[in-house]
Specification:
The complex is a heterodimer of chains A (581) and B (230). Chain A has 14 helices and 13 strands. In chain A, the strands form three sheets. Chain A has a six-stranded mixed sheet. In chain A, strands 2-1-5-4-3 form a five-stranded antiparallel sheet, with helices on both faces. In chain A, strands 6-8 form a two-stranded antiparallel sheet. Chain A is rod-shaped and about 175 Å long. Chain B has 230 residues and is an alpha/beta fold. A five-stranded parallel sheet of chain B has the order 2-1-3-4-5, with helices on both faces. The chains are: A alpha+beta (581), B alpha/beta (230). At the A-B interface, α6, α7, β6, α8 and α9 of A face α1 and α5 of B.
């Protein structure tokens, strides 16, 4: 039972909530229900007032008529009694019957006549009984109170309910007055007037009134509906047009006709849309101008740089023939031209991102291949630095829709960065894939960085330590560009670091365009069994870390590990201050 | 070795760069010819009959794309674009206009010479070699591709691409491998080169370029030759 009750309650609650929502959502429904409610209440009050007044009026009028009529009939009857010559009981009985029968038809319409012995009157002649023209049971309608009041003299009346044949009750009036009958003495004469005709008139009037009220409500509802529709429709149309404008259809306008408030609204709305369109067009033109500028600067700078570059190379190639100072100058010219070129290239690349001109040229590629090629390209540097770079690829192919040029650039940047900060320790590159994403983690065991620094590594021209930055080359834009490249893929690029423990960078890319990343196949925070077991209870417990859920994602991180992670993606900003543990 | 060197037409409005390119090419034994604007480029091309064209894309008069199309219309001579714009659209437009390869500024003299050499290198096969790919027959030494007795005109680069695929019909070529085999890149380069030229080649040799049967795509890997029809 309780469960059924609960079910009903739930269903009821839901229905009420749906109705409430409907009510709140539509102005038209709200206005309509309010108007109809007020209309119905007012009409009900009017109906009650008019009905009551009419009934009262009809009743009073009839009662006046009835009283006059019965007074006349009673005096007539009294006259008949007075002039009668009856002496015996049976003669008196006959007289009573004659009088009542005569009086029954004497009035306006039908009435019943009762001749009852007055209360307290002794039964002097046993043969004489009460006389009635109608159903003897109706005598019960004459209450003892009325009889007592009548006995006090004068004309008395009372309103009663008269049961009809079909079981209903119609209003009626009983009027009584004393008469004196020869031989037997004091009697009371009662007239019962049914008010069925009045009731019928009243019913008819109320029916007409109800019909009129119904018509009025219908009129009210229809009028309200039409009026609100006229108001709400343009508002709705405005909302639709605004939505389409927001969706980028800048040519969308509201129809303007007439000179009313709605036309003013449409006109203002259209002016606003036109102004918006103008501003957006201006911005687009500015953006196009910016792109043109970047492109032009690129051309204008690159052509002379090419000439300088080639001249420098020719001089550099012939440096052995020069005296030492000129030879060294040639070498400096060459290396600094390299740097200048890299910087120019990176600057142009980042300005392309800023102008929104960067395009993803995606194709289905094995990310493992791309990573191998990037590592290959970085191997000369690794050799020079004496850094061992290992690559761990997944069993199968890790195909994802990527722009290979950009992904290779990201991985190359990460690997070069790791090699430069590894200080001779090995660099590990790991690639893994699941059904939704491919991840590349580049881990070094070098100087590492503080969590605060990890939050800034993707900033432009940011250097962890300005003093040592000079020696490590790079333009200072590499990781910023990598971040933009990752973002263009809808991917993540995150950094983790600890002073003295090295750093870890993780690139996570969706395997198909349109996949929104929620997790990465690889942990960002390294789980090395030989590293501080106290901080890594999972590894200490002897559980295979690979079998555990990704530690590095969102709330799964312990507080201790979380503050070391800087996730500079759209999902969470790396610009948030990182608490240093 | 000197016989291998050839004449190179340098079309560039920047005289300093053109002169510098000339110095580098000459030091490598090539014979540079110069042209400074797009309108006269075709005339100089016809007059000098170069073995290779180095073409700047931004030129006064006709732009580089237009010059490239005009040259392509009458000759299969290798065209290498010099571009300051390595953006997708510009490079792809140039390649679609018929350029075989591109060098983005700023470049080093070694890169320039390597590109020029790679495009001028012709594999001199001593023995006659006939290959079949799809319903095509390739006469390698004769540089001819024939379908049902009708020769199909291909540029040298397209020919090389087709031959590279046809020689090993069992092998799937990655774009990188094709860049190395056909374009002569030792390190990773722009794979768009391969994509655009495969499209161009298909438009010439396929019955229906939308459903290729000669140069077949292997998704996620690269391309392979279609089965020979015997």
């Amino acid at each position: 039972m309780t469960s059924v009750a609960r079910l009903l309650r739930v269903r009821w609650t839901r229905r009420v909530r749906a109705a409430l929502h409907w009510w709140r959502a539509s102005l038209q429904v709200r206005v309509l229900t309010t108007t109809l409610t007020i209309g119905l209440v007012v009409l009900a009050l009017v109906f009650a007032y008019v009905g009551d007044r009419t009934a009262q009026g009809l009743f009073d009028e009839r009662v006046q008529q009835v009283l006059g009529e019965s007074a006349r009939s009673t005096s007539q009857a009294q006259d008949m009694f007075d002039s009668a010559t009856a002496r015996t009981g049976s003669e008196v009985q006959n007289l009573l019957t004659d009088v009542t029968t005569a009086q029954r038809t004497g009035g306006s319409g039908e009435r019943d006549v009762f001749l009852l012995r007055a209360p307290g009157q002794p039964v002097s002649v046993p043969a004489v009984t009460a006389v009635t023209t109608g159903d003897p049971k109706l005598v019960d309608l004459i209450t003892p109170e009325l009889r007592a009041a009548t006995a006090e003299g004068g004309q008395r009346w009372q309103s009663v309910g008269l049961p009809t044949a079909d079981g209903r009750v119609t209003p009626a009036v009983v009027v009584g007055q004393d008469v004196t009958v020869p031989v037997v003495g004091g009697y009371q004469m009662y007239f019962l007037y049914p008010l069925a005709a009045e009731q019928d008139r009243l019913d008819f009037l109320l029916r007409t009134l109800a019909f009129a009220a119904g018509a009025l409500v219908l009129l009210l509802g229809t009028t309200t509906y039409l009026v609100t529709r006229q108001t709400v429709l343009p508002v709705r149309r405005a909302a639709q047009v605004a939505e389409r404008l927001a969706a980028g259809e800048l040519t969308e306008r509201m129809p303007e006709h007439g000179e009313d408030e709605m036309a003013t609204l449409a006109h203002s709305f259209n002016e606003m849309a036109a102004s918006l369109q103008d501003q957006i067009r201006q911005l687009e033109e500015l953006s196009a101008l910016q792109r043109r500028f970047v492109s032009d600067v690129s051309h204008e700078l690159r052509t002379p740089l090419t000439t300088v570059r080639m001249a420098g190379e020719v001089i550099h190639a012939a440096r052995e023939d020069f005296e030492p100072a000129v030879k060294r100058s040639a070498e400096l010219l060459s290396t600094q031209l390299d740097r200048f070129e890299d910087l120019l290239g990176d600057l142009l690349e980042i300005s392309r991102f800023d102008a929104g001109a960067a395009v993803l040229d995606a194709e289905g590629r094995d990310v493992g291949d791309v990573v191998l090629r990037a590592v290959d390209n970085a191997s000369p540097l690794a050799e020079r630095r004496g850094v061992w770079v290992s690559v761990e690829l997944p069993e199968g192919r890790a195909v994802a829709d990527v722009d290979p040029r950009r992904v290779e650039r990201i991985v190359r940047n990460l690997v070069v960065n790791a090699i430069e900060h590894a200080e001779g320790s090995p660099v590990e590159v790991r690639v893994a894939a699941d059904s939704r994403a491919v991840a590349v983690v580049v881990r070094d065991h070098g100087i590492g960085m503080t969590p605060d620094e990890a939050g800034h590594v993707f900033d432009r021209f940011w250097r962890a330590d300005p003093a040592r930055a000079r020696t490590t080359g790079g333009t200072g834009l590499g990781l910023a560009i990598s971040m933009e490249d990752a973002r263009l893929h809808g991917g993540w690029l995150e950094a983790w670091g600890r002073p003295g423990q090295g750093a870890s960078f993780r690139l996570t890319l969706p395997r198909r365009a349109g996949i929104t990343l929620t997790a990465s196949p690889l942990p960002l925070v390294p789980v090395d069994p030989d590293e501080e077991p106290a901080q890594r209870p999972l590894a200490r417990a002897g559980i295979d870390p690979a079998a555990l859920p990704d530690l590095s994602d969102g709330d799964d991180l312990s507080e201790d590990e979380k503050d070391g992670v800087a996730r500079a993606t759209a999902r969470a900003s790396a610009d948030e201050p990182q608490e240093v543990s | 070795m000197a016989a291998m060197k050839g004449r190179v037409l340098v079309v560039d409005d920047d005289t300093a760069l053109a002169e510098m390119i000339g110095i580098v090419l000459r030091s490598e034994g090539f014979e540079p010819v110069f042209c400074e604007d797009g309108d006269s480029a075709l005339g100089v091309f016809r007059a000098s009959a170069p073995d290779l064209v180095l073409l700047d894309l931004m030129l006064p008069g006709k732009d580089g794309y237009e010059v490239c199309r005009l040259i392509r219309a009458e000759s299969g001579v290798p065209v290498v674009m010099l571009t300051a714009k390595s953006d997708t659209v510009d490079v792809v437009l140039g390649l679609e206009a018929g350029a075989d390869d591109y060098i983005s500024k700023p470049f080093k003299p070694k890169e320039l010479v390597a590109r020029v050499r790679a495009r001028l290198r012709r594999s001199d096969e001593p023995t006659p070699e006939h290959l079949a790919i799809g319903d095509l027959t390739i006469d390698v030494p004769g540089h001819r591709v024939v379908r049902d007795g009708e020769p199909i005109s291909l540029t040298p680069l397209e020919f090389d691409l087709l031959v590279a695929l046809a020689r090993k019909p069992w092998q799937v070529f990655t774009r990188e491998l094709l860049l190395e085999k056909v374009w002569g890149y030792r390190h990773a380069a722009d794979t768009r080169l391969v994509n655009v030229h495969v499209q161009r080649l298909r438009s010439k040799v396929e019955h229906d370029p939308e459903r290729p049967e000669i140069v077949v795509t292997v998704r996620g890997v690269g391309y392979k030759a279609g089965a020979a029809v015997t």
